[in-house]
Fold each of these.
Amino acid sequence: MEFRFFTEKDWENISKIYKEGIETKNATFQLEIPNWKEWNNSHLSHSRIVMILNAEIVGWAALSPVSSRCVYGGVAEVSVYVSNSHFGQKIGTKLLEKLILESEKNGIWTLQAGIFPENKAILKIHNNLGFRKVGYREKIGKMNGKWRDTILIERRSKKIGIE
């Protein structure tokens, strides 16, 4: 098992895993895979991680800014995706652990996520790593014409932004 920073050269493999998540209809509101430029412009330039197992990318994690306002510069939204063929192997947990460490190295004091209530596995992973439920967003967005709810969770660093 190996972690490393990812770049555009990894996008083909990363986007395949992203597509698997989209197809579950419980991982994201996104309905289509963006191109690299769109994805790259909407995510922070640091804390982009892939996990490699047997020379294959089996999962990825990254952060998105929650606002362009400078006061929220230390707040980021979490994305964690694991290949369907590698579910149940603690890859999501390991990726999120690594993402937390990388976020703190880069001055992020709060991580947040909006997760569909049906995605119980990812909610459990986040809960086990110190995220707490801060809200329930009823009918926050439509997917394929159907209103969807999300559970808003966050994790406050015990190392960054504590003064």
Amino acid sequence: MAEKIIEIARRHDIPVREDRALVEILSRLDIDRQIPPELYRAVAEILAFVYSANEKYREEKGRA
């Protein structure tokens, strides 16, 4: 599933953050389960990356 998401993202020039340690941790989780508190920081880092990428996209879109 993750490989398909990455493939689609790259095809559409969406930034992809590579973090092997994070992949290792998240790959152990069941997709239908809540994120355990010990992973909140990792999830916060992902969200910060997404927000930053979104802001850069909006700025570039505004210049075009």
